[in-house]
């Protein structure tokens, strides 16, 4: 690509990101560094279209970048700005209170990230990896019970589940005693790997109802917690543009459905685990939300041991202001990592 073609392409993409409208040759004549006729620019745009970098909507003589074009722009021509002081203050203000519980702090940060970027924010919260101190089962009704998880760091998690039919206070106590006999000092991840083995070893001494209760309770903290409690989504309404076409609204609805129904959000963590720093997924490159035609800017955050334990990100249309969003997501990831590291050290 010649220097002129590169500048035409860059200014066109920047104009599209700013306005959301197709960009025509006359608009570009005012943006280029040298004086070039509209006819010359039209020839360059036609060449770029043949290369698959631009597309021509049938309703306009202007051009818009294709997904391939946006990827080329992001990889080679994107000018990333510095984080604005105002944006930084808004994010910092969400973590000024040291008394907040971690889920509340992450929820506030997610809301701030959504407000600053005017997109939908995603925060994948870390798994609870503190060692377990004690486990208790509490009956709430004939068909409902509570598993209470007390961790060595003082955090307590309560999760409702459906126990086996016929459960009794004695079977709940037996289930809790069974788990507590080997749970203390182990994380939930470690427990998940050994519970089946322990059940098989003690099959003769463990009551059937207690065994079923253990399995039901474990399913709650392995599945329900993973699927619904770890992914915080804020600012969905920001994606609903009053001027959006019916086709755009259908894509956004598809995105909302994906966010509601996602069953394996471990995939979301994998988006950023392959390397440090911010990553950008445009349109169908984003395997989780590809049907919605959205872009995702995502960055991992780490604990005090420099281990990746979660992800923050922003979802928006493919014409996101990537140069502004990237430093915001990067700073937010660092902010979340600091919040978690500070709590680990207390």
Structural write-up:
By secondary structure, the protein is an alpha+beta fold. The protein has three domains: 3-76, Winged helix-like DNA-binding domain superfamily/Winged helix DNA-binding domain (Arc Repressor Mutant, subunit A), CATH 1.10.10; 85-127 and 231-345, GAF domain (Beta-Lactamase, 2-Layer Sandwich), CATH 3.30.450.40; 132-229, Enolase-like, N-terminal domain (Enolase-like, domain 1), CATH 3.30.390. It is 49% helix and 17% strand. The chain has twelve helices and ten strands. It has helices spanning 3-19, 25-29, 38-50, 67-76, 85-92, 102-117, 169-183, 188-201, 208-229, 246-261, 266-273, 322-345; strands at residues 54-55, 64-65, 120-124, 132-141, 144-151, 156-161, 231-234, 279-282, 294-302, 308-317. A five-stranded antiparallel beta sheet has the order 7-3-10-9-8, sandwiched between helices. It has a three-stranded antiparallel beta sheet with strand order 4-5-6, covered by helices on one side. Strand 4 and strand 5 form a beta hairpin. Helix 5 (85-92) packs parallel to helix 12 (322-345), helix 6 (102-117) packs antiparallel against helix 12 and helix 7 packs across helix 9 (208-229). The longest helix has 24 residues, at 322-345. The termini are far apart. Mean pLDDT is 81; it is low at 223-228.
């Amino acid at each position: 690509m010649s220097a002129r073609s590169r500048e035409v392409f860059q200014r066109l993409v920047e104009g599209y990101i700013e306005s959301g409208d197709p960009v025509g040759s006359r608009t570009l004549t005012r943006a280029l560094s040298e004086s070039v006729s509209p006819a010359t620019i039209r020839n360059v745009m036609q060449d770029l279209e043949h290369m698959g970098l631009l597309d021509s909507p049938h309703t306009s003589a202007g051009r818009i970048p294709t997904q391939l074009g946006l990827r080329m722009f992001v990889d080679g021509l994107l000018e990333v700005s510095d984080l604005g002081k105002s944006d930084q203050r808004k994010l910092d203000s969400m973590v000024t209170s040291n008394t907040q519980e971690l889920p509340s702090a992450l929820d506030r940060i997610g809301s701030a990230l959504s407000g600053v970027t005017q997109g939908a924010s995603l925060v994948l919260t870390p798994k609870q990896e503190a060692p377990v101190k004690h486990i208790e089962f509490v009956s709430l009704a004939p068909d409902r019970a509570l598993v209470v998880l007390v961790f060595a760091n003082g955090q307590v998690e309560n999760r409702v589940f459906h126990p086996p039919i016929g459960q009794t206070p004695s079977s709940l106590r037996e289930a809790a005693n069974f788990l507590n006999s080997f749970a203390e000092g182990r994380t939930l991840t470690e427990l998940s790997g050994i519970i089946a083995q322990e059940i098989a070893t003690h099959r003769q001494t463990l009551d059937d109802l207690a065994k079923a209760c253990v399995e039901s309770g474990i399913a709650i903290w392995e599945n329900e917690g993973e699927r619904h409690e770890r992914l915080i989504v804020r600012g969905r309404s920001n994606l609903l543009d009053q001027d959006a076409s019916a086709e755009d609204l259908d894509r956004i609805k598809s995105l909302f459905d994906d966010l509601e129904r996602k069953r394996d959000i471990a995939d979301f963590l994998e988006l950023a685990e392959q390397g440090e720093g911010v990553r950008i997924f445009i349109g169908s490159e984003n395997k989780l939300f590809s049907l919605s035609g959205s872009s995702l800017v995502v960055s991992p955050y780490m604990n005090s041991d420099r281990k990746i334990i979660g992800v923050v990100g922003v979802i928006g249309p493919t014409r996101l202001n990537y140069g502004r969003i990237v430093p915001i997501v990067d700073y937010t990831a660092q902010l979340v990592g600091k919040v978690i590291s500070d709590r680990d050290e207390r």
